[in-house]
Specification:
The structure is a single chain. By secondary structure, this protein is α/β, with parallel strands linked by helices. It has two domains: 180 residues, Rossmann fold (3-Layer(aba) Sandwich), CATH 3.40.50; 186 residues, P-loop containing nucleotide triphosphate hydrolases (Rossmann fold). It contains twelve helices and 15 strands. About 5% of the residues have low confidence. The structure holds adenosine monophosphate. Adenosine monophosphate binds next to helix 5 and helix 6. The site of adenosine monophosphate has 17 residues, from helix 5 and helix 6.
Amino acid sequence: MKEKIILFDKTFKPFIPYSKIEKAIDAVAARINKDYAGCTDIPILLCVLNGSVMFTAELMKRLTFRCELVSMKLTSYEGTNSSGKVRQVMGLTSSVKGRRVIVVEDIVDTGATVVDLVDILRGEGASDVKICTMLLKPQVYNKNITLDYVGMEIPNDFIVGFGLDYDQLGRNLKDIYVLDTDGDGTPDTLKEIKNEGKMKYYILFGPPGAGKGTQATSIAEKFNLCHISTGDLLRKEIAAGTELGLKAKSLIDAGSLVPDEVVEGMIENQFNSVKGVDGFLLDGFPRTIAQAEALDAILEKRGESVTALVALMIPDETVFERIKHRASIEGRADDASDEVIANRIKTYHEKTEPLINFYKGARKYHEVQGLGGIEDVRGRLFELLEKF
Ligand code: AMP
């Protein structure tokens, strides 16, 4: 790799060597070959011009099933910043009606282009759309479309090479280069993506009784986060006899959820009022897809996004056992009867569990085994959270 590359007014330094790119493409191709092995139809590879031209060519060489190439051209970039606007510059070169399509992208950042592509392809009658991208910027990806095949994850930096350009230059570089902002010329490695300097927004997820409350305090302390438990906030409102508390009480006592707007308002108030922390640990929120969407909207207004969802998973039998045990210690009204516990478990499966796929789609889902001693589970949680 060359030391540095100058394109117009900018200097770029080495970032991902071709050898690494090839390995990532090998892995993606192997997964696609496995998924499409023995197919009787002829799936379409949709090359999204111009950026993915190199990736598409390399990928196609490795595919072992019969496939067809279709291209189209969209643009969402002006200079080095994503403008967020997607324009269709050249339509599909062939019909996709009734066909399975694998979209081949060079890079996905916010995901605006992917959303438009899926809309266009569905509108044109594609029978199935899968997304394959060589690079993903998970820190800025904020859409809920599943990215089926991802070559490599990279930080939110501006890069050129291997098809990617800076104002049309740099596409021909075999390796990938990153904008040299510090001028030290030190090659970046594909280090773990750290969201340095940005507020962290973690969701501690899991069925009732998974141990979220038990673990939350120590996590919040270790990572300097504000722990927000919507259940605790609601119980405080009930204890204080506020209007909100009175309204929430009957729902909570029955093991049902309180209305989305109520908890969304509480969360936004906390984000606005708590200072001096490195982020927030949400416990018991979001509990519905609508709440997850509202959370995305609240964070988008603040220029932030969910860092990760951490799921503490235990089986249903354990849920029941643990809540019964907690009832004998804490005396929570909604832990008291078997019927109410059963309703909470049912509400969890029906309304809350769909969040797993929602966050998997956003590539923010991480699971930790919730069975075992408190210290063991804590250790696993700490180990995972250290990575962000
Ligand atoms: P928790 O302490 O998290 O188990 O919450 C206790 C109860 O508060 C739940 O069973 C719900 O009735 C209510 N609650 C807590 N968080 C939410 C939420 N995000 N959405 C709706 N209801 C909630």
